Amino acid sequence: MTEQPAAGDGAVAGARRVWILAFVGFLLTIGAWSVAAPYDGTPDEREHMIRAAGVAAGEIAPPPADAKKGSGAFQDVPAGLVREQCWQFKPAVSAACAVPPGSDDTPVRAGTGAGRYHPVYYALVGWPLDLWPGWSGVLLARFISAGIAAALLASAFVVAVNWSRRRLMIAGLLVAVTPMAAQMASAVNPNGVEIAAGVAFFAATIPLFLDRRPKPHHGLLILAGISGLLLAMLRQTGPLWLAAAFVAFAFPWRQSNVGRLVRERAVWWWVGGIAVAAVTAVGWGVVMKSSDLGKYGGHVYTYGQAALAETDRWRGYLDQMVGVTSWLDTRMPAPIYLSWQFVAATLLIGAFVFGRLVDRWRLLVLIVAGTVVPSVMQVALIKQTGFVTQGRYMLPMLAGVMLFAAYVWEERGLDATRSRTLVRLSVIVLLPIQLFVLILTMVRWQDGLPKYLTFRTFNPFAGDWHPPLGSITPLLASVLGLTLLGVLAWRVSMRPLNEPDEPASAISEQAPTPDLR
C-alpha cells in the first residue's frame, strides 16, 4: 500500500520554502553592507577583528591589561590586520587615506578594547582572519556573521508567518531590522548577531508564552532556545533582556502558557542550558573584568546633570537606532528618521489603544527594560566612562517591543484587511529607506560627504575609494535582497482563502478570564 503523506507535510514544506527565501533576502541585504564597507568601516570593527583573530589562534583569555583607555587586553594577531584609521568621525574624508588589510601573517602584539569579551562569537567568526588576514579573510569573517544573523531573522520571519494571526508581526519585524541593524550584522561585531538574536528570541517567545491555539510549538522552543543561548553569551546586557522577557510574558501566570510549558521536559533542558550560559557569561565578566569599559574622560557631571543630559540624548538614540551609519558620523536627512519612527510609533500606539491592561503591562516592562534601565546605568557610570551609550545597544530589546506591539494590535483590534494594508505600507516605506541609507553611506566611504547635501552627492560610483568587489556588487545585492523580502512579505500578508477571518474582538482559544481593560 502506498504511504500517504502526512497532513502537515505541505505546511512544513511551505515553511521551509519561506525560510529559504527569507534567508537569501536577509543575507543579500546584510551582505551588501559587508562588501560595501572599508576595513574597520563600522563602530569598533577593528577591535573585534583583533579579538576574533586572537581567539582563533588559541588566545581565548588574555590577561586583562590597559590596552585601550584603561581596559581591554593584548592579543597576538597577523600584522596584516593591524591598521590605523584616518577618516573616522570625519565625514568629509573618504576611506582612501587608510591602509587596507594585508596578507602579512607575521604575529604581532596588538591591543584591543574587546580583549576581555566572551569568546564564543569570536571563535565562530575569527578563523578566516587568522588564516587569511587580507581582504579575503575579512570578507569571509563578515559573511559568517551576516549568515548567522540572516538565519535568525529568516526564522523569525517564518514564525511571523505561521503564528501571527493576521501577519502583522511581519511589519513589526521589518521595523525592528533597521538599516543600523543591517550594518551591524554585516560587520565583525557581536552586537549585530545580538540584535538578530533579540528579534528571533522575541518572535518565538511571544507565541510560545501567549498563544493558546493547539498547534505544535517545538520549532518555537528550538528557536527561543538557540537565540536565548546567544543572547546570554554575546554581550553583558543579554541576561537583562532574558529576564525582562520572562517577567513580561510569564506574569500574570493565569494569562500565559507557563503552566503548560513547565510540564515539558524539553523546556527544562533549554531553560537549564540558557541559565548555565548566562551564569557562565556573568562569571566570565567578573573574572575578566569585562564590565570595566575604561576611562573616556569628558566633562565632570553631577548625577542630576547627567540625568538631564541623558534625557536630551534620547533624540539622538532614536536616530541611531534607525541609522547613523559608518562610525556614527553619517546622518541621514530628517525625513528618513521620521518616516521609520512614524511606522514604529503607529504599531506602538495601536497596541496601547487596543490592548488590554495586561498587554499594556507587558509593553511597559519591555519598554522600561529597553530604555529606562540602560539610561539609569549610563547615569550611574557617568563619572567613570562618560557618555558611551548608543542607540544600537538597545535594539535587541526594542525589537521585542515592536514585535509584541504588532502581536497585541492584531489580536485585539485590527482585522485582516487593515493588517495586510499596514504590512504592505511597511514594505513600501521601509525597504526603500534601507537602500537609501546604504547608498549614502557608500558615498561617505568612497568620496566623503560635503557639508551640505545636494542631489549630485548621491553617486555611489564616484570617489577615490571603492569596495574590494566594486561598487556595483553591494548595490546589486541590496536591490535583489530587498526586492525578495518585499515580494515575500507582500504575498504572505494575504491570509489563506480557506481560513475564515475572525472578529476583531476574538482572542486565542484560552480559558475564560476577566476582561482587564
TrEMBL record:
**Transmembrane ranges?**
18-39, 139-161, 168-186, 192-210, 217-234, 240-255, 267-287, 336-354, 361-381, 393-410, 422-445, 465-490
State whether keyword Transcription regulation applies: no
Which of UniProt's keywords are assigned here? Membrane, Transmembrane, Transmembrane helix
The keyword Coiled coil belongs to this UniProt entry's keyword annotation: no
Please report the name of this protein according to its UniProt entry: DUF2142 domain-containing protein
Organism annotation: Micromonospora inaquosa
